[in-house]
Design goal:
Blueprint lengths: L1 H13 L12 E4 L3 E4 L2 H12 L4 H15 L9 E7 L5 E5 L37 H12 L5 H14 L5 H17 L19 H13 L1 H5 L1 H13 L6 H6 L3 E3 L2 E5 L2 E5 L6 H12 L12 H21 L10 H4 L2 H7 L27 E7 L5 E7 L57 E4 L5 E5 L6 H14 L5 H6 L3 E2 L7 E4 L5 H9 L4 E4 L6 E5 L5 E5 L6 E4 L1
Parallel strand pairs: 13-14
Antiparallel strand pairs: 1-16, 2-8, 2-17, 3-4, 3-9, 4-5, 6-7, 7-10, 8-9, 10-11, 11-15, 12-13, 15-16
Helix pairs in contact: 2-3, 3-4, 3-5, 5-7, 11-12, 12-17
The structure holds 6-diazenyl-5-OXO-L-norleucine.
């Protein structure tokens, strides 16, 4: 009992009054189950599902729909995502509900007659929208793994939130105020997001509630057919989009074998292609495992330099080799071969940065060829789900479905719009990720689950952040495994990132001392400081079985459990 009081007191101390009007809890230490999401309301909804006998998948479905209402910046029904599900016996599953390019999409659809990229064409408005996968994905999860088998129960909390309204957090009020002008210029009709609003007034989404009721009644068909689909297609037609009814009807999410690899005896499960996580993460972990990463100390110039040099090399491969495996023959065997990865590091110098201009993607003799959100759930039976979902940029294409009241994604920008031209996240790409109808665009989303060497569940990790997702997930895992941090410290520690091009290390401002930055510059690195990198939602099962849910301190993120 005394222990319980201490735990409650610690949780209270850690509860941060962030920039919100609700208190978001950054760490819970519990015995049964935990939910960590980007929004307090969604976390509470997920927790209640678990307490009502639902499993981790039930909670995830309820959280996904709740986030679509209370976290419209990234939560969605018309975006896409990936889920890694680990059953208590260790069996892993990966669900790909990534958007696809509409059948009418063309390689040059964002280029003008002179072959130049048309500004904003792949990021704003109807042409930027990929065929959404989220609603089908939730239906797939439900059919295969729901314990409650009560779809209505899972979606009703979202309907209530939309219909009765809720209070935006301070951070959300600021956020919406900031984008309102763009939202008004993209949308011809008034929406709850474009209406002038008084700060602190309840946020109600009546039209969206009706859409959710249609999904409640007919599950995936409530979204991909009927009046909801008609409204979606009308929005496309009124705004120059190319998605048609058949695109919607034919959308299918795909169960894939999760990418599985080992790092210092820990099994790691993550998302395979079309997420680059399943290639980039095993490459990075294999490359650093040849060195003594923690040797120089946490955030020492030596450790940051080594990590950045590894990142530089794997991102070059990502840019040139990776894309939807259904459309490209990706040389996976070569890319993950230990000899190849050792070879890639031959040009690594402990003292000097290798300029990115000197790094190319690997060549194989047999070559055949702002905004996302993450949540993590562990249930009382020991099942775990790590789910990252997105509209791509914050509020996606900024276009709201007319008569539907929900945001449409701008995921098409994740394709390589033109070889060598950077996308929203500064990523360049080539042939493997060019636009083709029906193809999935390459992603960095990395929902990940890590086991102990004894095969029991250790960590559930993920984050938004575009290209930085890969390196944030890598850093949180190495913070725990190599730098022996508890999960709270591992998540809240400052982060940095290198992605080959542009040739620079981005670092969170205020997170690294002057001497460290100078030492890195002396080695030849260029440093650019940014406000923040990622929003990690993680769960750690400690060796004594305590479940520690940790929400990122960087925004409203909220951990709950019991
Ligand atoms: O799939 C991807 O890699 C991107 N669409 C993710 C976007 C993202 O994380 C935005 N969040 N800040």
């Amino acid at each position: 009992m005394k222990k319980l009081y201490i735990l409650v007191f610690i949780s209270f101390l850690i509860a941060c009054r962030s920039s919100t009007n609700s208190v978001s809890v950054k760490e819970v230490r519990v015995q049964n189950a935990a939910v960590v999401t980007a929004h307090p309301l969604a976390s509470e909804i997920g927790l209640q599902v678990l307490k009502d006998g639902g499993n981790a998948v039930d909670a995830a479905i309820a959280v996904q729909f709740a986030l679509a209402v209370c976290f419209p910046r990234a939560g969605n029904i018309a975006g896409g995502g990936f889920a890694i599900y680990r059953e208590r016996d260790g069996t892993g599953y990966a669900l790909d509900f990534r958007e696809i390019a509409p059948k009418a999409a063309k390689e040059d659809m964002y280029l003008d007659s002179e072959g130049n990229v048309i500004p904003n064409a792949s990021t704003r408005g109807a042409l930027a929208v990929g065929v959404p996968g989220t609603t089908d994905g939730m239906d797939q999860l439900f059919q295969r793994f729901s314990k409650l088998q009560n779809w209505d129960r899972l979606i009703q909390p979202a309907i209530d939130l939309a219909e009765k309204g809720f209070y935006l957090t301070d951070a959300q009020e600021d956020d919406i105020a900031e984008v309102q002008e763009s939202l008004r210029s993209v949308n011809k009709q008034e929406t709850p997001f474009t209406k002038p609003r008084k700060r602190g007034e309840k946020f109600v989404q009546k039209e969206f509630a009706e859409v959710l009721k249609a999904i409640k009644k007919d599950r995936r068909y409530g979204f991909y057919t009927g009046w909801v689909a008609d409204k979606f297609i009308e929005t496309m037609e009124n705004n120059g989009g190319v998605i048609n009814h058949l695109d919607l009807l034919h959308y299918k999410s795909v169960w894939r074998p999760p990418a599985e690899f080992y790092y210092r005896n820990h099994r790691i499960l993550t998302m395979p292609l079309p997420s680059s996580a399943g290639v980039v993460l095993p490459q990075m972990f294999e490359m650093v495992s040849q060195y003594n990463l923690p040797g120089g100390g946490f955030h020492s110039p030596t450790a940051i330099h080594l990590t950045a040099e590894v990142e530089r090399r794997v991102f070059a491969d990502r840019a040139m080799h990776l894309g939807d495996p259904r459309y490209n023959r990706v040389p996976l065997f070569n890319l993950m071969h230990r000899d190849y990865l050792l070879d890639r590091m031959k040009s690594f110098s402990r003292d000097k940065a290798t300029p990115s201009s000197a790094i190319r993607e690997g060549v194989f003799t047999d070559r055949e060829s702002m905004e996302t959100t993450h949540f993590s759930v562990v249930d009382a039976e020991g099942n775990a789900i790590s789910l990252t979902t997105t509209l791509n940029g914050a509020y996606g294409s900024h276009l709201v479905c007319e008569g539907g009241g929900y945001f449409l994604n701008n995921e098409m920008d994740d394709f390589s719009v033109k070889p060598g031209v950077p996308n929203l996240y500064g990523l360049v790409g080539g042939e493997a990720n060019k636009i083709q109808g029906g193809k999935r665009m390459l992603s960095s989303m990395s929902p990940t689950i890590v086991d102990y060497p004894n095969k029991s569940l250790k960590m559930v990790v993920g984050t938004p952040g575009g290209s930085t997702i890969l390196t944030s997930v890598f850093q949180v895992i190495t913070n725990v495994i190599d730098f022996k941090m508890d999960m709270h410290s591992a998540v809240q520690a400052p982060r940095f990132h290198h992605q080959w091009l542009p040739d620079q290390i981005i670092m969170e401002e205020g997170g690294f001392d002057k001497l460290t930055k100078e030492a890195l510059e002396k080695k030849g690195h260029t440093i650019r400081e940014v406000k923040s990198i990622g929003r990690v939602e993680a769960i750690h099962i400690e060796e004594d079985g305590t479940i520690v849910g940790v929400a990122d301190k960087r925004k409203d993120d909220h951990a709950v459990g019991y």
